[in-house]
Amino acid sequence: MSVTIPTHCLRCGVCCYSESAEYVWIRGDDWSRLGDDADRLAHFIGHRAFMRMENGHCAALDVRTTTDGAKEFFCTIYERRPEICRDLGRGSPECEAELETKAGKVG
Ligand code: SF4
Ligand code: SF4
Fold it and tell me: Range of 66's domain?
């Protein structure tokens, strides 16, 4: 692959985007960690739980504009984010695949 890995996830956010409602699946401990925000940010589809998706991205993502005019992709629950998000490290093969698959389609 020949994708360029962003220097910071805040300036990328690609892996928080999907058209699928069943994209960010969460487990029981992920749900518990969300605390009072669980019902607002996550829901069940059938017997499995997922983060809610809004406007093509995870409902926990806040797309901001910084003072220098750049877009910033901020996870509002970063310390409590699901395990699947923790496992997807910047620069990992999964990250590269996300960048390659969704190039130009998100943000
Ligand atoms: S892990 Fe990769 S795809 Fe996800 S925000 Fe960071 S650089 Fe972008
Ligand atoms: S929980 Fe945070 S890191 Fe995970 S998909 Fe949602 S916004 Fe992105």
Answer: 9-94
